[in-house]
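step=encode ok
step=design start
structure_in=
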């Protein structure tokens, strides 16, 4: 989908920033937010729409101008969002500006809604490469504490590692997953998104694992971080991040890396899985101070 005319300037400014590796991120954050800030200061309205257009421009660039291999540019893109957040609360006459969606720029109003729309479809409404780039962006925003999309990390690993599905596509070529049913999306189409989370946000994910972080409140029945069928069948007892679930993800990556695929494509998926195994091993080593809990990362302990 082509961007709206209103987004074109944002997209142009983002791409200009990404092309110039030495561009000042704070100054560019001010440039990106200047028109919205002016509208808010003049109380001219339309702020929620303006916020949505801004974040949708970031999403458009992520999906259409970047790939998972553009690691430094994805890093800089997330850093630019963090710099916008660091502009702090916008004030007029000494008073913080409030909108329906929060305080600009501390709360990054509407960024959650804009990102969530990209995750509303299962399977995703884009190619595996675009999906990996989007997850890489979300992972980096989470790692930088710009916004918390850690739940999306669970979704990425649940879809790829906890859901029964074919290992590889039956037909060659990369297509739009929107044309498929969820169960028709193969593991190798989803593993690149998993790698983005492990590589860009693995340290935070394992910290949440150690904390047994959950996404439900007392009395809440619907858990957005619920277990996939394979994890549930393996005896994992609860959703959210847990030591046992982390261990299950590692086990699944080992199984995928060793699986025989008579339809072809085994080398590609084995390589992807092995990269995930290596990264999880690095993370385990980095947090080896966990002492006895470290054993749980490889075993059955909850």
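sequence_out=
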């Amino acid at each position: 989908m082509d961007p709206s005319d209103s987004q074109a300037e944002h997209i142009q400014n983002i791409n200009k920033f990404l092309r110039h590796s030495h561009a000042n991120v704070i100054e560019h954050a001010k440039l990106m937010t200047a028109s919205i800030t002016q509208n808010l200061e003049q109380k001219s309205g339309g702020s929620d729409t303006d916020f949505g257009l801004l974040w949708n421009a970031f999403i458009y660039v992520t999906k259409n101008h970047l790939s998972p291999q553009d690691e430094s540019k994805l890093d800089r893109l997330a850093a630019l969002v963090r710099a916008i957040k660091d502009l702090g609360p916008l004030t007029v006459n000494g008073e913080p500006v409030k909108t329906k969606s929060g305080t600009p720029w501390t709360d990054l109003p509407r960024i959650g809604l804009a990102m969530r729309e990209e995750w509303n479809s299962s399977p995703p409404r884009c190619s595996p490469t675009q999906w990996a780039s989007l997850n890489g962006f979300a992972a980096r925003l989470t790692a930088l504490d710009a916004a918390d999309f850690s739940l999306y990390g669970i979704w990425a690993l649940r879809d790829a590692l906890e859901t029964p599905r074919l290992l590889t596509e039956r037909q060659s070529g990369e297509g739009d997953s929107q044309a498929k049913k969820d169960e028709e999306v193969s593991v190798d189409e989803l593993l690149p998104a998993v790698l983005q989370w492990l590589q860009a946000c693995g340290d935070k994910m394992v910290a949440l694992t150690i904390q047994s972080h959950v996404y439900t409140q007392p009395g809440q029945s619907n858990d957005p971080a619920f277990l996939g069928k394979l994890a549930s069948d393996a005896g994992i007892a609860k959703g959210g991040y847990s030591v046992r679930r982390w261990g299950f993800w590692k086990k699944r990556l080992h199984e995928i890396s060793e699986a025989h695929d008579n339809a072809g494509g085994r080398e590609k998926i084995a390589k992807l899985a092995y990269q995930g195994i290596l990264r999880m091993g690095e993370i385990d080593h980095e947090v080896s101070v966990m002492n006895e809990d470290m054993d749980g990362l490889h075993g059955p302990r909850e």
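step=design ok
step=annotate ok -> Strands lie at 91-92, 95-96.
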